[in-house]
Structures are given as structure tokens and as C-alpha cells.
């Protein structure tokens, strides 16, 4: 596995692969790799000749400095993980490399970034789109792989790729879950044993809403109320938002009749914020 820390090194490697007619799959991560990342890498390996993984904890997308400082970092474990997975190249730039002195240009996302995460994490998606754009320009991938757990992020990045005419295909990979339904996340490692046990309520609330929808309930307000009641049964869970929106436009829906809607939630356990979503489809 080749390891690069500078953009010109990474770009040169990628250009060599393209010249040799090898397709490149790219998996951007912030490290603390887990089985969700494993699924992304495996999917990329199935689709592409070469796979690049990046590890960079992007300060620009954290609205809370303490969250940035506490984000789990296990570089040696991540290196072993990628080696064992057969990753072809690992890109691990430093903050100073990504944002050198004088850096001042940012990507400004549009309306898709405004609701939900955009309300509660000011500047988050500007940070995400800026770093992803830089990573695309460095790794030069044919395809890039993102987890469906971050549904709004996926939509915002797809919009950026269209708007900027970027030559990369965005591939959505299904959320990987624990047996009790909890979506895999690097932040899960910060949960106490009590919080970890309680956190499965997140997916349970989503499943109950989907079941109600499949049984004929089309009122968003009623489905949200059902999910809120599930979360209220867990004293440790503090709901930040529960929203139902059109999966193509990210616009909030009052009534679900077309069957292309998603329910998304953000729930706190102590100082740890977890997000998840579920498609409301037949």
C-alpha cells in the first residue's frame, strides 16, 4: 500500500493509474475505521481497479471545537485496517497541508444544505463540500463512495458534483448496522455502556414510523409523533430533530403520498450526537 501526505504525490499516483487505464475508487474518511468503512472499501474494490482511502479529520466541518478535539483518532489501527483490506493507496494529509497559511476559498452549498444538519451545525456543509472538492481534485477518482447514513451529506455532495461538472460518479452504500439496529459510526466508541445500550432506540423509532407508513399512515406529523414517543421512553435520549423530507429535493413533506420520502433524526446521548435515517417506501 502506498501512503501519501502531500497533494502533488497523491495526484501523481492517480494520474499514473489513469494512464495505465486503471479505474480509481475513492473512499473519503475521517479515520477510526469500522465495518461501515469496510463495506465502502469492499464496494469500491468490486467496482474499480484501484482503491484510494483518505484519512483526514476535517476541522472545517465541526461547528463545535470540543467535538473536533474529542473525535476518535487511531492512526496505527487505521493503517492496519487499510493494509488488511488491500487498499492500494492511503492519503493522510495534515491540517496544514489541506489548509495552508492564507487559505480563504470555500465551497458554499445551496438549499439542500439548509435544513436539519444545516440548522443545527452552522457551516458544517460548507466544510464538507470544501474538503470533498479538494480531495476529489487530489485523488482524481472515477467513483467516490459515501454511506447512506449521512443522507443529507450525500445529497449535498451529489448536487456539488452536478453543479461543478466534476468528473466523478457518487456511489451511495447502504448503512451498516449492529444486530440491534444501531448504525455504525466512529462516534459510537465514545458511548458509555449504558448509552450504547440505549442508543438502539434510534433505529427502533425509525422502524416504528416506517411500519406505520406501510400500514397506511401518510401524515408526517403523526409519524414524527410516533417516533418521538419511542424516544421519550428512553430518558438518556435527547432529540434534536426528526424530519420527513423528499429524498430528491430535501424539502420537508407534510403528507407522504409519492413514496420517495426519508425520515431523518439527530439524537444526543450525553455529549455525543448520533444521526440516522430510514426510507419511507413500500
Protein described:
With 282 residues, the protein is an alpha/beta fold. The protein has 2 domains: 2-173, HUPs (Rossmann fold), CATH 3.40.50.620; 186-277, Pantoate-beta-alanine ligase, C-terminal domain (Pantoate--beta-alanine Ligase, Chain: A,domain 2, 2-Layer Sandwich). Helix content is 40%, strand content 20%. The protein has 11 helices and 9 strands. It has helices at residues 7-19, 35-47, 65-70, 75-85, 95-98, 117-120, 124-139, 151-163, 193-198, 201-214, 220-232; strands at residues 2-4, 24-29, 50-55, 89-91, 143-147, 169-173, 237-246, 261-269, 272-280. The strands form 2 sheets. The protein has a 6-stranded parallel sheet, sandwiched between helices. The protein has a 3-stranded antiparallel sheet with strand order 7-8-9, with helices on one face. α8 (151-163) links the parallel β5 and β6. The protein starts with a strand and ends with a strand.
Amino acid at each position: 500500500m502506498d501512503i501519501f501526505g502531500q497533494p502533488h504525490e497523491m495526484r501523481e499516483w492517480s494520474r499514473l493509474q489513469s494512464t495505465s487505464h486503471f479505474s480509481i475508487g475513492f473512499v473519503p474518511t475521517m479515520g477510526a475505521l469500522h465495518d461501515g468503512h469496510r463495506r465502502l472499501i469492499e464496494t469500491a474494490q468490486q467496482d474499480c481497479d484501484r482503491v484510494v482511502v483518505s484519512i483526514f479529520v476535517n476541522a472545517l466541518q465541526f461547528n463545535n471545537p470540543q467535538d473536533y478535539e474529542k473525535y476518535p483518532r487511531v492512526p496505527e489501527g487505521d493503517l492496519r485496517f487499510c493494509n488488511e483490506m488491500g487498499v492500494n493507496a492511503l492519503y493522510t494529509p495534515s491540517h496544514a497541508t489541506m489548509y495552508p497559511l492564507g487559505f480563504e476559498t470555500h465551497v458554499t452549498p445551496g438549499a439542500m444544505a439548509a435544513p436539519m444538519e444545516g440548522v443545527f451545525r452552522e457551516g458544517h456543509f460548507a466544510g464538507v463540500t470544501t474538503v470533498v472538492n479538494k480531495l476529489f481534485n487530489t485523488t482524481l477518482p472515477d467513483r467516490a463512495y459515501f454511506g447512506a447514513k449521512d443522507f443529507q451529506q450525500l445529497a449535498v455532495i451529489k448536487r456539488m458534483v452536478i453543479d461543478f461538472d466534476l468528473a466523478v460518479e457518487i456511489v451511495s452504500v447502504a448503512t451498516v448496522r449492529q444486530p440491534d439496529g444501531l448504525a455504525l459510526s466512529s462516534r459510537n466508541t465514545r458511548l458509555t455502556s449504558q448509552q450504547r445500550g440505549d442508543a438502539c432506540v434510534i433505529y427502533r423509532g425509525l422502524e416504528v414510523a416506517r411500519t406505520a407508513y406501510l400500514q397506511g399512515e401518510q401524515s408526517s406529523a403523526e409519524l414524527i409523533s410516533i417516533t418521538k414517543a419511542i424516544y421519550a421512553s428512553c430518558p438518556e435520549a435527547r432529540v434534536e430533530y426528526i424530519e420527513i423530507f423528499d429524498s430528491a429535493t430535501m424539502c420537508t413533506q407534510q403528507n407522504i403520498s409519492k413514496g420517495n420520502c426519508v425520515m431523518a433524526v439527530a439524537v444526543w446521548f450525553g455529549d455525543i450526537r448520533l444521526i440516522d435515517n430510514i426510507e419511507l417506501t413500500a
